[in-house]
# Entry
Amino acid sequence: MPKEAPFIPSPEQREKSSYKQVIVYRMRHGDTNYYEHTHESDDWEKHDLKEEGIESMKANARIIAEQHKTEKDDVIFCVVASPRVRAQNGKRIIEKELAAAGFNVWDDARTNKPQKMVRSLDISDENGEDVPTKDERHPDFFNAIQAELKSDESGYVERLAQHGIKNLETLESVSKRTRHQLSKFFRIARTIQPKVGKRIIVIEIEHGETLDDSMEQVSFGERTMKKGTEAQKGEMIKIDIPVDPGKNEMEVAFSQDEGFGEEKKIDYDPDKKEF
# Structure
């Protein structure tokens, strides 16, 4: 289990807080069986990652740990995930690996509650009503969508709309939600980080479509579902968000085999929610 972290800093901690960034690691969940959607396993409500997916989450935890090995006593990790089982599996793996490596992992009801702002493959019926994963109709809806995806190799959500399928959110609506969340990270950087005597590091396990807007922006249009170059399962980006309210320039780097590539600078206005 993650170690419980003292979130309320002492006066001494407040005085020594000089961190200039909040660091956010955003990653796509590991390789999955999608049992949560197909109900093909009796254990689908608890476990949905393949062995490869489990290993990719452990590898990401090792990469993150390596990034912060020299400041082990000065960082606090907060791990959040979408409500999908495959993302929740990744959250537990990341937390366990970091705690085993001796890092401080914030354990709180607020982080253990699935984040409703990060979803994947939300399905609705012909009346526009949600079809939850536990609904007995869900596998049929899911399989119909997968069949449609396999029948056409171009695009993603847009091509579903072309085929008359409206069961998925559009990339535009997903972008609105994820930009709202990115602005939340800026608020954490500017209102909470200056008061805390440890560096705040957020790790978020999410999905291809919720990562897509950020991936597209930081790759200058090269990495996106629209081109079939979206984030791969287990892929990760690192974002440094400035504490200074006068600065909106983030530093972003893509994960590589054992670390991260060259950092790129990109502007984001957290008030207007615009890159």
Summary: The CA atoms of residues 63 and 257 lie 9 Å apart. The longest strand covers residues 21-28. The two ends are 38 Å apart (CA to CA).
